Amino acid sequence: MTVRFVTAADDLRPAYDLVIVGAGPAGMAAATEASRTGARVAVLDENPRPGGQIYREITRNQPGARQYLGADYWKGKALGNAFAESNADYAARATVWSIEPADEPRDGERHRVGVTIAGAARMIEAAAVILATGAQERPMPVPGWTLPGVLTAGAAQIALKSSGVVPAAPIVLAGCGPLLYLLASQLIDAGARDMTLLDTSRPVLRWESLRRLPGFLFSPYLRKGLGLLLRTRRRIRVVTGVRSLEILGEDRAEGVRFATARGTSTINASTVLLHQGVIPAINLASAAGCPLAWNAAQRAFQPVTDAEGRTPKRGVLIAGDSAGIGGAQAAEIAGRIVAVAALSDRGLVARDVSAALINRLQRQRQRYFRGRGFLDALYAPRHIFLAPPDAQTIVCRCEEITAGKLREAISLGPPGPNQLKTFVRCGMGPCQGRLCAATVTEIMAAERGTSPADIGTYRLRAPVKPVRLAELAGLPHAPRALKAVTGRDPVDHHLNETELPS
Ligand SMILES: Cc1cc2nc3c(=O)[nH]c(=O)nc-3n(C[C@H](O)[C@H](O)[C@H](O)COP(=O)(O)OP(=O)(O)OC[C@H]3O[C@@H](n4cnc5c(N)ncnc54)[C@H](O)[C@@H]3O)c2cc1C
């Protein structure tokens, strides 16, 4: 068995038992597991190669060349190889922009998946869909964050994993979370010099994190996390307790002014890398109509799922970090669990077999949830970096909406973020709110003196990613749709291609 590489939209089959969106640890594991059952599986991912965030370019990178990416990264080789040996149809550079119920479901729920490959769009059908769309970095709006030379830590890591690029020095990493220290360590090993890390985490000696410490002490994160922290502090300057940040510069980043309990300082910077944790990438789930719920510990919205990834939308399941942040190992196991659940619901895996397998996998996954609570509490962002107080700070980068403008509009009384959109167009740009939704909710909650859970977040509609009109116009339409427009029964052969195989 080997994976079938699909490079053109027309090479996709009209229908699959399972369509998986995302080829990160969760998506690759789900496809590998599902392939064992003989199901027709498609994996659609917008990146040029499988791997997702953590294992980006794992199928192309060779340990000799990029050892600095670290042991955890190279663990992805085995998963990448197993995926390559699956019988899935795999489409790289494939952007999924909609998931909707099929027009004429023949047996039980069916879904239509809107995908674009190489500039051509297609709607394919699926009996079940697994969204393994991963996480995104939480926005960190500080004054000057839109200046050239400022990017997220994740973006710098993508450049390092994909092309071995080390940013221009002096480099300032600012924010909180394990990824910031991981990147610092990877950059040092890749030869970066003149780096400073400004850690905005709150003191560890807080009840919130201390009461979760025991779980962390017996978790797989203790040795790895402490090792990373100590190694980084031994090799670069780390400033802790950073309470505010401002990026200085006229037409590009030139320095950072920051404050701690010890006073205010300024340091030079050609590159500023911001990061304050990751949150589930929920846009596709939201547009597919999956209900969202507030996860107070991770301070983010996530789709509502059962323990096996099922959402209230029958046949739509969610695996990995897009269902809630758990990390790469938990994502991989979740991918297996969710694939077995999806296929067992379709009768493609016997109930008793799936139950036994899922129980075993759930026990394995528990191990990676231990210690998560402590990390979430330790790295919970300071409120100043969630809801920027400075009125001039841009929150919605697509529409250049500032925090001040948002507060002004909020004072006019829109009930929630969706109505606020109509007031100031925040969240209506090409990113469809990915970069501002979390901040808009936090600002609105603070202004209203209530919790983000009560405020809610944007409700997305398809397309969740930009689609060109030509792509929509080029979509082969079902006879029913054409008749609806022309009033005549179409007889063209091309239309039969969308018909499901008997
Ligand atoms: C920028 C970034 C860097 C990270 N680096 C690390 C790291 O070095 N080490 C670590 O332990 N953890 C890292 N993480 C955490 C990471 O979320 C998990 O470790 C792990 O990758 C989660 O696996 P996943 O399969 O759930 O999602 P991911 O690995 O994120 O995979 C999701 C895949 O879905 C694709 N996708 C999303 N939406 C669509 C769509 N609409 N159409 C098509 N494809 C889509 C994405 O491009 C991606 O390839 C990182 C997270 C981020 C955001």
Structural class: alpha/beta
Supply Rg: 23 Å
CATH architectural group of the largest domain: 3-Layer(bba) Sandwich
CATH top level of the largest domain is: Alpha Beta
Number of DSSP strands?
22
Outline:
This protein has 502 residues and is of the alpha/beta class. It is 33% helix and 21% strand.
Jot down its keywords:
disordered C terminus; 502 residues; alpha/beta; binds flavin-adenine dinucleotide; FAD/NAD(P)-binding domain
Walk me through this protein's architecture.
The chain is an alpha/beta fold and 502 residues long. It folds into 3 domains: 4-136 and 279-349, FAD/NAD(P)-binding domain, CATH 3.50.50.60; 139-276 and 373-378, FAD/NAD(P)-binding domain; 387-455, BFD-like [2Fe-2S]-binding domain (Arc Repressor Mutant, subunit A), CATH 1.10.10.1100. It has helices at residues 25-35, 71-74, 76-84, 153-163, 178-189, 207-210, 213-217, 221-235, 283-287, 328-345, 351-369, 372-378, 403-410, 417-424, 437-448, 452-455, 469-473, 479-486; strands spanning 4-5, 15-21, 41-44, 89-91, 94-101, 111-117, 120-131, 135-137, 150-152, 171-176, 195-199, 237-239, 244-248, 255-260, 263-268, 271-276, 278-280, 292-295, 300-303, 316-318, 394-396, 401-402. Strands 1, 2, 3, 4, 5, 6, 7 and 20 form an 8-stranded mixed sheet that branches. The longest helix has 19 residues, at 351-369. It binds flavin-adenine dinucleotide (FAD). The site of flavin-adenine dinucleotide (FAD) has 38 residues, from α1, β5, β8, α4 and α5.
